[in-house]
Amino acid sequence: MHLNSDNTPVRPVICFDWDGTLGDSMDLCLGEIRLALERIGHGPVDESLIRACNGPTHEESVQVLGLDPGVGPRFLKERRRAEQELIPVLLRLYPGADSCVKCLEKKADLVIVSNGQEDYIRRSVDLFHLTDCFKMIQASIPGYSKSQVLNKVLKDLGYPPAVMVGDRRTDIKAGLDNGLPCVAATYGYGTEEEWEGARIRVDSVQEMQDVLIRWAESPDKTICT
User: Fold this and answer.
1) What pTM value is reported for the model?
2) Which of 32, 51, 190, 205 is close enough to 194 for a disulfide, judged by CB 3.0 to 4.6 Å?
3) What is the DSSP string of 16-32?
4) What is the layout of strands, in order, in the sheet containing 109-113?
5) Tens of pLDDT along the chain (225 residues)?
6) For 40-138, where are the alpha helices, taking DSSP H only?
7) Cα dihedral: 58, 100, 204, 95 (round 10)
8) CA 173 from centroid of its chain's CA atoms
9) Cβ contact 123:148 at 8 Å
């Protein structure tokens, strides 16, 4: 058991990705990018490229979409503006995600580690009245990989026993790079290849909740089904 300096138990930490793990944001991603492209006078882009932007940072989406770097700053400004406009309209939670979070906060400290912009993540969490459930919300940091962002979070928290939960390659890699067991949310937007290395895969929010409750009660044990 991990103990604080006063010999009280250290609460385990569950690090969640947001998009594709708790937030069902694909419709929002599609909507905000299409609106941003329209506002800068750019023609339509293949939907598969737009879908591939759900996971990477906003800055990375310029390259994913194949945009001329010269229009990148204008696109990013308009995407951020469109995102804020459309959050209340298009963003959803996965079924059971709110009750899952409220259940797990009784067992562990919860953290969001996301590639999203901070204003997006905070507004999204607030929209669903979940802000008080999270000990920390860490958005993307320019120039940092997700592995580096997660390392910063763990350092700030004093390196407690922790687990990483996400649906994309960068989530799993971030966890593995920091020596954490990883849970792959296969109901999200990732692929079979992206989940390689995860200790366990879950096909629903309820299954994820069950796995994480068991882990939080015995964080020194290996995550298993």
Assistant:
1) 0.92
2) 190
3) E-SBTTTEE-HHHHHHH
4) 136-138, 109-113, 13-16, 162-166, 182-185, 200-202
5) 454 445 456 899 999 999 999 999 999 999 999 999 999 999 999 999 999 999 999 999 999 999 999 999 999 999 999 999 999 999 999 999 999 999 999 999 999 999 999 999 999 999 999 999 999 999 999 999 999 999 999 999 999 999 999 999 999 999 999 999 999 999 999 999 999 999 999 999 999 999 999 999 988 766 655
6) 47-51, 58-64, 72-90, 97-104, 118-127
7) -80
8) 13
9) no
- Six token digits for residue 197: 């290395």
- Residue 86 is encoded by which pair of tokens? 């459309």
Residue 127: which of 24, 204, 57 has the closest Cα? 24
Q: Which two tokens stand for residue 180?
A: 């954490």
Question: 55: left (phi > 0), else alpha (psi -120 to 50), else beta?
Answer: left
- Between CA 58 and CA 9, with CA 136 as vertex, the angle to 5 degrees is 145
